[in-house]
Amino acid sequence: MTAEERERSIAAYVALGSNINDREQYLQDAITALNQEPGIVVTGLSSIYETEPVGYVDQSAFLNMVVQLQTVIPAEDLLFKLLAIENRLGRKRDVRWGPRTIDLDLLLYGDEQLTTPDLIIPHPQMHERAFVLVPLSEVLYERQDAAFEFISANLEKLEGKEGVVLWKKAQ
Ligand SMILES: Nc1ncnc2c1ncn2[C@@H]1O[C@H](COP(=O)(O)OP(=O)(O)OP(=O)(O)O)[C@@H](O)[C@H]1O
Ligand SMILES: Nc1nc2c(c(=O)[nH]1)N=C(CO)CN2
Fold first, then answer.
1. Ligand approaching nearest to the C-alpha of 20
2. Given 68, 86, 88, 115, which is the most exposed site by the fewest CB atoms within 10 A?
């Protein structure tokens, strides 16, 4: 991302969830894919949380986390990129709220409020989901200019490299 793009970029927050197979690997692959998209820089990561399934409970435990981005991509296009990454990582849509290799939800996009047929921001269920709010509050709390500069500079160096572990381990 150029300095000019960084200047006009918007902070967005994406929730990640996985409960099939190698859950950590899916989180890592999704973060790598996001960071490789032109117009997106990953600037913050929450810890990974293991969570009991909510809603449809007859399924395995999830790993959940939240990622902070700076992006110049408009919100609806960003959603389509998230859906494309889900598909690339093998996401199938059978059971509503059912098991998934990876789920990417757009939580916040700057301070925009938006309702279109495809996209509602802020994400309508985020307020009732501890598995979203706990990691989200963690990245929001950690957001400081110095850290932001540091993380984004380091992630830029990593851009394009695969298999780099980008997250902190769950305690
Ligand atoms: N903020 C948002 N983030 C992600 N998807 C959204 C958002 N607002 C609306 N949607 C729509 O929701 C649709 C269904 O998403 P998805 O298949 O991931 O649902 P789900 O994960 O089963 O349930 P949930 O939406 O409760 O997580 C998407 O195709 C998208 O158009
Ligand atoms: N713990 C947990 N439960 C869920 C999750 C999730 O990511 N974590 N996602 C769902 C569908 O969006 C339904 N239930």
1. 2
2. 115
